[in-house]
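Exercise 7b. C-alpha cells:
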C-alpha cells in the first residue's frame, strides 16, 4: 500500500514540476528581449483555441524553449498554428 501511494505522489509531483517549467506564450513586444532559435508547427488539432496553445506549449517544451510567439494560426476543420521559439 505504501509503495502505490508513494508512486502516485511522485507522479503528481512530477506533473506539477513539469508544468512549472512550461514555455509561455508571449507577445511581439516581450519577444524583443529574447533570442529566437527556431519554429514549431502543430496541425490537426480539434477543439478550442486553448487546445492549440496546449499543443504549441508541448512542442515548444520538447525543443527546449522557454517561450513561444504564435506567428500564424488558422482553422479549417481543425486548427493549424506555427510559433517562433525563444530562449
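Sequence design result:
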Amino acid at each position: 500500500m505504501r509503495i502505490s501511494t508513494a508512486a502516485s505522489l511522485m507522479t503528481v509531483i512530477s506533473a506539477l514540476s513539469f508544468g512549472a517549467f512550461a514555455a509561455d506564450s508571449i507577445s511581439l513586444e516581450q519577444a524583443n528581449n529574447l533570442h529566437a532559435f527556431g519554429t514549431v508547427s502543430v496541425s490537426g488539432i480539434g477543439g478550442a483555441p486553448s487546445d492549440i496553445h496546449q499543443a504549441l506549449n508541448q512542442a515548444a517544451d520538447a525543443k527546449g524553449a522557454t517561450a513561444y510567439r504564435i506567428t500564424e494560426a488558422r482553422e479549417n476543420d481543425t486548427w493549424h498554428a506555427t510559433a517562433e521559439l525563444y530562449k
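Instructor comment: Residues 47 and 56 are 14 Å apart (CA to CA). The chain is about 45% helix and 35% strand.
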